[in-house]
Amino acid sequence: MNVVDTALPGVKLIEPRVFGDDRGFFLETWNARAFADAGLDLHFVQDNHSRSARGVLRGLHFQIVNPQGKLVRVTAGAVFDVAVDVRRSSPHFGRWVGYELSEANKRMLWVPPGFAHGFVVLSDSADFLYKCTALYDPPAERAVRWDDPALAIDWRLDGATPTLSGKDAAAPLLADAEVFA
């Protein structure tokens, strides 16, 4: 696999080796030894799978207690996936990176603890899978508004209004959010 550093230290774009022929393809999406050799010595405790329709935007989420690292990928469709540094002490606080993840490119993104995460569906629907380093802790979940002008994330919506949960629509701006020290 090819592990690519992003503009945010700690966030990694992962391009797995794909073996294909006329029968289809094979790839490893997780191999503890290979990831450790690439500097990602991770322990996962929970796997999640969501399916969303075109224009659904989920995020920007994080856990303030028991923060989760997430290894994310798409098995059907395409999304624009975003990580935002929400550590006030970081020189990169409030900066974001975004990448298209799709069934076609088979890329994965490592979003470490201390980062908010979200995605918007670009295809008719998308199946989104993620491995987490900590269990989901509902009282610890926090969010930042997807359209915070201070973040200025280009969600690739081309003027369309995304479909949001009530919680995401009511999320605070980064300046007002409870974030990491």
Descriptors:
single chain, 181 residues, mainly beta, Jelly Rolls, 6-stranded antiparallel sheet, 5-stranded antiparallel sheet, 2 helices, 13 strands, globular
CATH class: Mainly Beta
Shape: globular
Number of helices, counting only DSSP H or I runs of 4 residues or more: 2
CATH architecture descriptor name: Sandwich
> How would you sum up the major sheet?
6 strands, antiparallel
Number of individual domains: 1
Spans of 5+ residues with little confidence (pLDDT < 50)? none
C-alpha Rg, in Å?
16 Å
In spatial order, strands of the major sheet run 1-2-10-7-12-5
The CATH topology comes to: Jelly Rolls
Q: What proportion of the residues form beta strands (DSSP E)?
A: 35-45%
CATH superfamily: Jelly Rolls
Total strands:
13
Order of helices and strands: EEEEHEEEEEEEEEH
Helix content: under 10%
- Span between N and C termini? 33 Å
Mean pLDDT: 97
Q: Structural class, from helix and strand content?
A: mainly beta
Provide a descriptive summary of the structure in words:
The protein is mostly beta strands. It is 6% helix and 41% strand. The strands form three sheets. The chain has a six-stranded antiparallel sheet, with no helix packed on it. A hairpin with a 2-residue loop joins β3 and β4. The model has no long low-confidence stretch (mean pLDDT 97).
